[in-house]
Structure formats: structure tokens, C-alpha cells
Amino acid sequence: MEIDISKLAQNAIDTISEQIKNLKRLNIIVAGKTGVGKSTLINSVFRDNLAETGIGKPVTSHMRKLTKKNVPLTIYDTRGFELGKDVQTEVKNEILDTIRKSLASRDVNDPIHCIWYCINTASNRIEPHELEWLRELSNENQITQVPIIIVLTQSFSKKKAEELKKMLLDENLDIIQVVPVLAEDYEIDDIGTIKSYGLDTLIHVMEEALPDELMDTLQNVQIASLKSKKLKAQAVVATASLAAVGEGAAPIPLTDCVMLIPTQITMIASITVIFGFDVNKSIITALLSSTIGTGGATVLGKTVVATLMKLIPGVGTIAGGAISAGTAGVITAALGEAYIGVMELVFKGEMSIDDLSTEKGKKTMASIFKEKMKTIDISAFKKSK
């Protein structure tokens, strides 16, 4: 039985598109005084340089709405405000009005989900008027209960950042957390480079603050935490592997193993969405041809499966030309973990997304897959039978 790789690739692309279409939109208000580094923070946390390349549509006199096609994220960027009491009051009221209007909307993609208030740690102190503004905002936000996170930007000195964080927490403001960050590496002449930090912590705080239905969206749009992406992707692999175990509860003839492929296609699509890369059909085609193959069996084709079964501890040969539930689970898990491994290389910049459609990409995928087949514990799948 021959597998139509082109058709499978199109199915994967369609699944990716459908999953992206179903993502709920994440809406964040970012506020702070002029010069605190809001744009740098936004571009360092979220993909596609939203603050630079997104469409900035004015929504109030002090706020613009940043969006970009195919990115399920809206940033409401408040223009920096200074010491004037009137301007501060206007900005606060505009934030609260935006929250109320968003909650009144019948569209599930409209509500504001989070507020980031940015304070420049390098300024060494927070002005009394700024504390008063924060207190007023948090008090008036008690009805709508939109999570407020204070982000300490330009935190070159971790010691000063921790001191400022402690002081803010001691103020008993109605906030979720205070997170010191350095959004970009900072080079000091003749001394060295201070490495960026804290953005992964900000993502973790967001994970704790946001509702579950926004977790997929958060992972899709964020570029700050590889760890968070991998954890989410590994959960997808675990679910798919258990589904493969169920589908293989009775031994499956190798010639019928094509029935497992939809589970694996959905898994690959979900991982792609989590990492947020723009993957086209040619890349998916290359991926599938180097993994599923065209022999009719799940993942690597009948011949390759028979060979690689020797790599799985405790399996040995394939009795009667069939694979067991445990074997189906292991192969699915190995495929998923290998794809995560490739996505990790792209995330780190060690490969480009276009490399996946080259011989280099195919060899890398095959190598990682082979290693994963050796390390995955089949006993976990045997217990699930």
C-alpha cells in the first residue's frame, strides 16, 4: 500500500490552519512612562516584531492597538505619560474604559486578559505619583479583575531590581506579580555583556494568570520561553502516544498501520502551532517523507519499522508482521519528540525553518528520531494497554 505523502502534507497544513483559526485571541494592555522600553519588551516576548511591524490603529487619544495578520494577539500600547496629573488620569480612565468595553462585547476574542505596567529599574526609584496611579488603577480594577503584572524593565542590576520588587510588593497593590526583566543583551564598553533574563519568568507568570483556553495562544505567540513551549508540546506528544496505544490495543498488521497516521499528523500540526513557525507544504512533505515514508506502515514504512524495532528496549522483532499497542505508542512518542527536537533547533537559531525541506533537515530528523527510539521507555505504554 502506497501512502500519498502530498495528500498527507496537505492534511497537515489544513489541520495547522484549522488549529490556528480556533485559537482564542490574547489581548494585553501595556502601559508605562515614556522611555521604559515597552516596544523592546513587546518585541522580545512576542513573535513577528509586533511593536515594529504590526498595524498601529489609534483607539483613544493615548492608546494604539497593535495587531498583525495571522498572529492571535492584540497589544493595546498606551503612549508614555509624564508627570501631568491630567494626562495620568486620562490614561487610567482610557485603560479602564477599554476593559469595560471589551467585557461588554459578545465576541470571545475581545476581552482584555492582562495588563503589564512597565517601570524602568534603571531610574532607581518609583515616584510617589506613580505609586498613587498604580493604586488607583488596581483599586478601580477590582470589579473587572483583569490581572495586573508590574514589569521592571531595563533591570541591568539584579540587586536593584530585587530591591524595587520588594518595595512594590510591600505596597500591597492588587497585582499578580512584579517581574524584573532585561529584554535584550546589554553590552557595556570594555566590561562585557549583561545577558537578557526574566522573560521566561514573565511567561510563567502569564501561564498562572491566564485562563486555560488561552494557553495554546500564549505558546503560539510567545518567543521568550523555550521551556514552556517544550512542556506544552510534550503534553501533546503524550496524548497522541496514548491514543496510538488505544488504536493498537490489538496487534495491527503492518499493512494496516496507516490507520495510525491521522493521530500523528494531528500531533505534528499541534506542535507546529505551539512553536508558531510559518511552515509550508513543502516542509511538511519533506518531514513526512523522511519519517512516515511510503511503505504503508505507520511512521517509517514497513521495512524501516522492522529495522528500528530492534532499537526499542524490550520489543525485539515484530511477531507475525504486526505491531503491538506498546510499539505504536513508542513510535508515535519518538516521532513527536524528534519533531520537538527539530523545532528546538529552529527556535535556537541552529537551523532555519527552510532547512527542514533539505537533505540536511531530513538527516537531522532521522538522527534525532533514532536516538529517541532508543531512550523512550516502552514499559509505560505496556501498562496502558
Brief summary of the model shown:
The chain has helices at residues 5-21, 38-45, 50-53, 85-104, 128-140, 158-170, 199-209, 215-221, 226-247, 261-275, 281-289, 301-308, 325-347, 359-375, 379-383, and strands spanning 26-32, 55-60, 63-68, 71-78, 114-120, 148-153, 177-180, 186-188, 192-194, 252-253, 322-323. The protein is α/β, with parallel strands linked by helices and 385 residues long.
Blueprint of the fold:
Blueprint: H1 5-21, E1 26-32, H2 38-45, H3 50-53, E2 55-60, E3 63-68, E4 71-78, H4 85-104, E5 114-120, H5 128-140, E6 148-153, H6 158-170, E7 177-180, E8 186-188, E9 192-194, H7 199-209, H8 215-221, H9 226-247, E10 252-253, H10 261-275, H11 281-289, H12 301-308, E11 322-323, H13 325-347, H14 359-375, H15 379-383
Parallel strand pairs: 1-4, 1-5, 5-6, 6-7
Antiparallel strand pairs: 2-3, 3-4, 8-9, 10-11
